What we know:
The complex is a heterodimer. Chain A is of the alpha+beta class.
Amino acid sequence: VRTARKLAEAWRLALLTRNAASFGALFAESAVFLDVEHREPEDRLRARPLHGPIEIEAVTRDWLDRTPEFRYDILRSVGDDLVCALLWEYELPGAEPFTGLTWIEAESGLIVRAFVAFDSLALLGAHPAEVRDWISELEAMEP
Amino acid sequence: VISPPRSIQEIAALLRSGAATAVELAEATLERIEAFEPALNAFLTVTRTLALEQAAAVDDLLAAGVDLGPLMGVPIAVKDTFATRGVPTTGGSSTLARYVPRTDADVVVRLRAAGVVLVGKTNMNEFGWGLDPRLGRVNNPLDPSRTAGGSSGGSAAAVGSSNIVAAVGTDSGGSIRIPAAFCAVVGFKPSHGRVPDSGMLPGCWSLTDAGPIAHSAADAAAVFGCLARAPEEKQSCVCDPPTLGVLEDWIQECRPEIASALDCALTRLAQEGWRLIPVRLDLSGTHAAWMLTFLTETATALAPFLGERLADTSAEVRWAVNTGLTVPAHAYLRAGHFREQLRARVDKALGDVDALVAPTASAPPTADEPPPRDEAYYADMRFTVPFNLTGHPAVSLPARAAVEPAGLQLIGRLGDDERLLALAARLEDTLERRVVGAA
């Protein structure tokens, strides 16, 4: 049975290998996943908890589709078999790296609750690499 | 058995002489479509019942002495982005498989009023960008192992196979002209705004125009005349001899088989007395401006329309929407500023000539279509995109002498659509006459 810490490592690996299916498979059917970046599409002020592996996989796939290559390092983790807290650093190309915290609770080798918190405004300055290149191309053409 | 008519004029003559009824023509067309579909996959919906009802109504009207004009009784198909009352409208996406509009798009209203017989909705790239594997790609009628191009590939393949004489598509970056070139038919993107866009599925509004695909410029003009608003100003006649501004460096960038086909056509025109003047138009910045505009507008229009259904679309569509949502306002505005400057440069290049001439696509159709994010995908569009950015009318004509399907693109002045199509018809006549003479 995977411990909470092992699940945290598998979480990181799934994201770095851009494998949404593997990421979703870490969660129990009853799992609840709350990330500060997950908002209701029609109301960005409302948090949107994700429920179960299918929804988590779909949202993760969508996020990976629009996210360029990134760095995601675990700086420190504390916990036991059932819970784990992580301090991590995340970096998109062309943007300043930032840190955040993840809380994982495990049962029977699957995640049943997860919280992710970070300064999501730090993402505002980051655009996909293609968008940055297109902007640079037009900027270079202006007198 | 009625052999496939090759033109709107031929259909008009058959109907009015009593040699065929509209119902007979519709039945023959539907049979051909059914026979070709396994190879082409050009249609998402074949509207058999509707077509036969409309054809019967046409026969009744003709018998009563009512003539609705040149398109009356002509079997036509429309791209599946146009809303059709009571007929599924998918945008090439199985996520909309159950969407049945209650009203018609303006384009469909105009076609119905002209007495057209609507035989079906044609296959297309998913929302003009991705490919829904559940619906499949459109195969080329000249060689089904190759793509028909996109995104109006179904419309071009249906015409290219001679199953119908004309169809309607839309063009945001070459989506009428490129498949027309690949299928060796005529494709016309009108001046921006000449054809009403109400009732099209949401997409990039400032780049997109609906237009005809047909076997000839004359037929394209007939369909355009039905679809379009009246021109704002009276248009002048084509000069005699016509003068073309040739974008020679664009032709030189093409694959040898395309470049030689275009050179051959231009040589013939020169021999027939057409004046050819070399002109230059720098393509720098067009890719960036088009992508920033296309993705921003597509995302703005599609994200609220699809809502959670976005998750069920292809990776290409999800990427387009999600990337478009990240484009900052200053970048979209900067692209708009670039477009104004490019429009002025194209207007200047058109100053002393009747039209510009350029390749449509730089290479022939391939077996595998690269994904839209791929640079190779954009390479096919780089000669068509500039005129979506500027809004100028542009028509792709088959370069008749080509071994591979090669499109010759004519670009006219803004709003001078009818004049451009008249010039295109004259160019066709000149090339055809020479080919016949040479034979």
